[in-house]
Amino acid sequence: NFELLERHHGYIQWLFPVFENAGMNFQSVALGKDEARDIRQNLDCAKRVIRSYRLMLHFYGLQLDDEITGQVSRGPNWQQRYQFLNCSSHNYLRINRILTSLGELGFERYKRPLYELLHHEIVDNGHIPHARR
């Protein structure tokens, strides 16, 4: 339910923990170095990170094309989904948290492809004009 994901803010801290806890969920705690290592080393946990990443990409109208390289592209519903990137800046905070968490959890290879696609959509294509403000 994308409307629910848009309206509620506390879930992102559970899906994408970071070393410096910040956000709207005051029950979440900062990610510890040992916990990050455990997530990186546990295949089930790593799969959950990827599943969470796919969920948020889909929420934003994107898709993960390659789990090895982290390549992303527009999803089939991108025009409809970009509305959430154009209506409120809190989604940029979510994306920042996702990028930070991916790096801290050992998925560094996923960061650049997402950044580059968003940069292209904002600067070159003008599809996310709200981000230019």
State the strand order across the main sheet: 1-2
**What is the number of beta strands?**
2
| Percent helix range | 55-70%
Low-confidence parts: none
Indicate the proportion of strand residues: under 5%
Radius of gyration: 14 Å
Compute the separation of the termini in Å. Answer: 28 Å
Sum up the overall morphology in one term.
globular
Task: Please state the structural category.
Answer: mainly alpha
Q: Output the helix-strand order.
A: HHHHEEHHHH
- The number of helices is 8
How many strands, what sense, and barrel or not for the largest sheet? 2 strands, antiparallel
What is the typical, i.e. mean, pLDDT? Answer: 91
What does this entry show, briefly?
This protein has 133 residues and is mainly α. It contains 8 helices and 2 strands; from the N terminus they run ααααββαααα.
